[in-house]
Amino acid sequence: MKPRHGELPEWVKGCGPNADVVISSRARLARNLRGVPFPWRASQHDLDLVVQKVRSACRSLTDRFPGLKAYAIDKLSPAQKGFLVDARLASAEQISGKPWQFLLCEPSGIFSIMVNEEDHLRLQVIRSGTSIGEVWELANWADDVLAEKLEFAFSSRFGYLTTHVSNVGTGLRVSALMHLAGLAATGDLARHLRAASELAVSIRGAFGEASKPWGDLYQVSNEVTLGIPESEIVERVKSVTEYLLGQERQARNKLLETQHSRLCKEARSALTRLSSAMSLGTRESLTLISKIRLGCSVGVLPECPVSLANELLLAVQAVAGDDGIAKIDRAAVMRSSLRSLKTLHD
Questions:
Q1: Is there a contact between 336 and 285 (Cβ–Cβ < 8 Å)?
Q2: What does the pLDDT read at residue 209?
Q3: Would you kindly state where each structural domain of the chain is located, as residue ranges?
Q4: pLDDT band of 75, cuts 50, 70, 90
Q5: Which of 12, 269, 289, 304: disulfide with 310, CB 3.0–4.6 Å?
Q6: Coil, strand or helix: which one is 301?
Q7: Which superfamily, per CATH, for 10-251?
């Protein structure tokens, strides 16, 4: 695994349907093995046993994912661990580097399994664009295949048992990462977010439950996992995503009709700033990337593909913190990421 030098995750390439607005769709299933304590109270022997059983069971997945490979987290370099988090293949908790933590992942990053994070297994499928039905179908298939080899902790009353009560039941989280810069620019965003949230779907910042929606990035996901069938969870998230997608399309068309020159000016100004700045905070970086990404999407920056804007989103997370050194390092990463853009050398 070579951070930032090997194959980029599929979602970064922006090749999925409606990927200019919906950056990615994801389905994640939390599972635990029957008769084995949850990770937070399990012994090292228990967790080593989990690793052995999961790795053995995952051989059944290789017909569909021939490149599936297991990585011992404690054997990875800090840069490799950071890349896994930035690429949304592993959580910050997963890369703490304990000997019993593993990641199984295939090269495109579409399918991965975190082993011994908060739960014994966190199975994830992530794809570019509006692919909610597709990621759920693939996650459900993998879950069924693994269930033939592994006995999961299950209650006839509550469903799948998980470390955190918010995941009990189906253990399913379905989400879409959306770039809603058009609605933010027209001032219509808050109204449409309120309308969407009435369907019991959570809409928050892209970088976690308490995160701010910097860069006009929002994550749409289900709030409830208990008492609702998987199909309904998927349909709810899909409906809200499609509603916001439609409203964002209208907002972008309105901006193109009424504020074309402003869109162009702001996008090019953001591109110039990002490619020359010597110091950048996280919030400023994401704000600039949002303007660039919107410009790419609506055609006022034809030389800049949406995939490059996604790479910038990936790169901006490579530097943690907002002290003086971090800001200098982040600016250097942004300048480096933009060097390949032909227009900057003209």
A1: no
A2: 55
A3: 10-251, 260-340
A4: very high
A5: 12
A6: coil
A7: Glutamine synthetase/guanido kinase, catalytic domain (3.30.590.10)
